[in-house]
Design a protein that fits this description.
Elements lengths: L1 E6 L3 E4 L2 E6 L3 E4 L15 E3 L2 E5 L14 E5 L11 E6 L2 E13 L2 E7 L1 H6 L2 H4 L4 E2 L3 E10 L2 E3 L8 H31 L3 H11 L3 E8 L11 E5 L13 E8 L2 E14 L2 E11 L8 H15 L2 E8 L4 H9 L3 E3 L3
Parallel strand pairs: 1-19, 1-20, 18-19
Antiparallel strand pairs: 2-3, 3-4, 5-6, 6-7, 7-12, 8-9, 8-12, 9-10, 10-11, 12-13, 14-15, 14-16, 16-17, 17-18
């Protein structure tokens, strides 16, 4: 089985935070997150032709608050109008932002988007930004639910008390996020200590269980965290050859502490290809070998499903990840 690391340093600026591709189009900000599963940007539920998605940030305040549930309908990017709230993906993350402007480059439609304040102020940084490809658009927000309220994004009038309540909630949210970032920094510092790693491994090593999941949603990798999980077995009897995606999950008392996604492509001349993505271990649990165990399980699954080639897309900045994959026989393809 051929094992390949593809170096990919595609960088994008979004909201003032520089991001880079890690895994298969998976982005991390330079600021660490306490719970850093990059695709866990809210609970997504497919309901007929619409998607319900929960907002987790305040960039669209006062129209959309963190915790609001957005109803998204499919849309042709050519039918979008300035001011529409566009739901799109970029660098592995999903966003709901206002459409501020459009432009064309090399016969391709690009959309310039921004948060609510950027839209209202016609922020020049957005206007000069290259924008996102129209192919990244997943839909348009047509309805917002907040508690018992249900309204169209631009139909609800925001009153003074609404603004006060929103500001208080935003302040509390910012405080919690700041505490999480501080906690994650502490964990990262502790994990440099060999004594701490040995202690952590002794405490949780026997409590970790591994599961394998298959997607409940076909042909939509953006919401592949909706999976039916079963206990990971060393036999191949439960692995179906026609499945296009598996997720291997490490859990402690049914709490996810890490995962790897496996995307199986159609066979080419050399055989079936598997792309590994979303290789994540939550920060508090790093340093005790969970990533190594996840990779072992994933490669065994590849072998049992007759995979000829395994790929992983990494940035050259991922020193730890590069070292880990090299230990398992992966070789770098392309310019390092």
């Amino acid at each position: 089985m051929k094992k390949i690391i593809v170096i990919e340093d595609s960088v994008c600026d979004h909201g003032g935070i520089r991001m880079f591709a890690q895994g298969s189009k998976v982005a991390f900000s330079r600021r660490p997150s306490f719970i850093d599963l990059p695709l866990k940007v809210g609970k997504a539920i497919v309901n007929n032709s619409h998607i319900n998605f929960r907002a987790i940030s305040w960039c669209m305040f006062p129209v959309i608050w963190a915790g609001d549930c957005m109803k998204i309908e499919p849309v042709n990017p050519k039918d979008l109008s300035i001011g529409d709230i566009v739901f799109y993906k970029t660098a592995g993350l999903a966003y709901a932002h206002r459409l501020i402007d459009t432009c064309r480059k090399n016969n391709t439609l690009y959309l310039r988007t921004g948060g609510e304040m950027e839209y209202r102020n016609r922020d020049r940084r957005v206007l000069y930004d290259g924008g996102i490809s129209a192919e990244s658009v997943l839909g348009r927000v047509v309805e917002v639910r907040r508690g018992g309220l249900c309204f169209k994004p631009d139909d609800r009038r925001v009153g003074f008390m609404d603004l006060i309540e929103g500001r208080i909630r935003f302040a509390l949210w910012s405080l919690i996020q700041g505490m999480r970032h501080k906690a994650s920094s502490v964990f990262i510092s502790l994990q440099r200590s060999r004594l701490y790693r040995l202690f952590l491994r002794r405490i949780i090593a026997k409590r970790i269980s591994f599961f394998v999941g298959t997607s409940l949603v076909s042909n939509n990798s953006e919401i592949h965290n909706l999976c039916a999980y079963q206990q990971f077995k060393d036999s191949a009897e439960d692995c179906e050859s026609n499945q296009t995606m598996y997720v291997v999950s490490a859990r402690i008392n049914n709490y996810s502490v890490g995962n790897i996604s496996l995307f199986f492509d159609v066979e080419n001349t050399s055989g079936k290809i598997c792309t590994l993505a979303n290789c994540i271990v939550r920060i508090p649990f790093r340093g005790c070998g969970i990533g190594q165990l996840l990779l072992e399980k994933s490669l065994s699954l590849c072998e049992r499903t007759a995979v000829a080639e395994v790929n992983i897309f990494l940035s050259k900045r991922d020193i730890i990840a590069l070292d880990l994959f090299r230990k398992f026989g992966f070789e770098i393809e392309g310019k390092e």
